[in-house]
Write a structure and sequence with these properties.
2 copies of one chain form a homodimer. With 348 residues, chain A is of the alpha/beta class. The first copy, chain A, has helices spanning 9-16, 20-27, 35-48, 54-60, 77-92, 106-118, 138-142, 166-179, 195-210, 227-238, 252-264, 282-286, 298-314; strands at 66-71, 96-101, 123-126, 147-150, 161-164, 185-188, 218-221, 246-249, 274-279, 292-295, 323-325, 328-330. Chain A binds a DNA duplex (30 and 30 nucleotides) through helix 2 and helix 4.
Amino acid sequence: MASRAKATILDIAREAGVSKSTVSLVLQGSGLIRPETAVKVRKAIEDVGYVYNRGAANLRKAHSNVIGMVINDLTNPFFAELAVGMERVFQAAGVVPFIANTAENPVRQEEVLKSLMEQGVAGLIVSPARGTTPGAFRRIETAGVPIVFAMRRLPDSRIPVITPDNHRGAVLATEHLIRKGHRRLAFFGGSSDLVVYHERLGGFLEACQTLGIAAADRLIVEGETSRKGGMACLETALAAAEPPTAALCFNDAVAFGAMLALRRRNLEAGADFAVVGFDDVAEAEHYSPALTSVAVDTGGLGERAAHVMLKMIQSRTTRAEDHIGAVSLVVRESSGPDRSKQGMGDAA
Amino acid sequence: MASRAKATILDIAREAGVSKSTVSLVLQGSGLIRPETAVKVRKAIEDVGYVYNRGAANLRKAHSNVIGMVINDLTNPFFAELAVGMERVFQAAGVVPFIANTAENPVRQEEVLKSLMEQGVAGLIVSPARGTTPGAFRRIETAGVPIVFAMRRLPDSRIPVITPDNHRGAVLATEHLIRKGHRRLAFFGGSSDLVVYHERLGGFLEACQTLGIAAADRLIVEGETSRKGGMACLETALAAAEPPTAALCFNDAVAFGAMLALRRRNLEAGADFAVVGFDDVAEAEHYSPALTSVAVDTGGLGERAAHVMLKMIQSRTTRAEDHIGAVSLVVRESSGPDRSKQGMGDAA
DNA sequence: TCCTATAAATGGAACGTTCCAATAAATCAA
DNA sequence: TTGATTTATTGGAACGTTCCATTTATAGGA
């Protein structure tokens, strides 16, 4: 074994005393070859230490078996879970997903997409980086490579999207807080360059409206979507003249930040101020106090995105339906009733 | 644009009125072609919506420009940070890193490695899955593809390894606890099928030995390397006849778990029981109380691994030196002095 | 026996690049 | 002018597969 130059099917053919075509057939598991021959060939494959050259094969074959997953922030466990969900499905389908990280940088994203295209990917699942320009995927679309967006959408594009029902999730969470007796509510974190932000904030506002929370009693604090951002949001909120008693946070990271800031002030989330997160990452359950959060079934959405992609590839189309995933509110300890005015709150 | 069949350099050549060789030269940025010609060709490239076919190119070229990163658990932020560190370096070197996740499963790892090899990667950086068999990389080695292990090593292999100085880190942390007056110490989490476990536990034991902690006063509790595992460890430890007053944890996840379990018992990490973690993930600083932990410079190790890989590729060798990264103890709030016997502790 | 039908194996022409050797054009020295 | 040199460009043969159209071997039917 271990010849310096790498072995090809021709070497195998020579070793096994058959033609290269036969070897190719064996590699593809064709039923046309005699079992004994197949065994002979497979032995030769072992002996020469052959590794299949997919690049060469793709030159002839219509489609490759690799799919690109482009993720905006791999260090965020939320997106990592998404990636893992997709992987499960692809693995079962014999497709190899390659993950690339854009670190929330559109330029890097451009490079990564170019590379993936050059490798001849069969499809692309993308959670676009913040600030992605509307035309960023034009070229890929015209090249006929299917794309699916996951978790985030671009303002106008016609590319299919898999996201949780952000609006509904925010409504659920907000209703929950109001039913707990809170009358002055805040929305923490996020910024308006994200479509998701508008969806979640929209749900919050709608629920406030419906359940009769006056505009003056809603506080919206934009901020980084991180722990740090959450801490800042809480400080801002408590500095207000009539501070809120509860907050729906853009995501769990913001919520964790808010809870941390509370503890620094010797306040307890749940008892002194209600906090609800969004995404329900694994950590939420293990926090103390445990975080009430909107569960979006991240892994499930990843699987769904993968399925849609597989179907698109199979039917060689570049169109597909959007998919809005169901959400549910997981009530834990961080969202207690309003206690700011004892005797007045009508907690449910 | 957007012709159904994808454009090749021949189409470009026709469009620009030159030969395919000229186009190829332009694509490679050769200085041999006349600037005006290059401009003409580049315009044609735009017009026909060309995407480079790296598979075809690799058929002729010696080496590809893709590197595989095989990570055992992408949902662990620690490994995600490692991956991100590597990416930084590779990007700058014009190399495209493809990340694949093995989910700590040797079978999956085998598949992933096979795929990567078939794609013709120039090198492989691997954080091996638990339970990887010693021979798992034999084939890749004999194929002459350089491999670097990151964070974890295999028991016997000669493959270069990039890891933090686990032994020293554990010594530092243990000395710290002892100097804080603790006399009954525990080591929480991990299991002996991991080389890293032995390194860290070894440091712990050595420091105990050196500073005169009797064997009877050391408690070793194996467990899952997760929050859940950490919680279990703490319960086990406190159930002992003479429970420890401090613990060094296998990693931060275990430490977080232990702190959680403490809180559930209405005990406070730092005040009632000292906890030290390992790895110093971003979260450690933002926990409450903030976690004392051994910082290993994850991103830096990733960069280092990437550099080693690049050098190996360049010098077409399959050997390289191991690299043991410096560690430091970051003291925060979770590791207070021993208060179990007031008046007796000689806290420093 | 010969002919036909089926099964198994094969040669050769792609696929889209790179790169060498060769050509064509422009420049220079004499 | 001629030949030598440099500068730009080009055809053609790889690279390692797949797949179609054939060929060869095997079996079955008369």
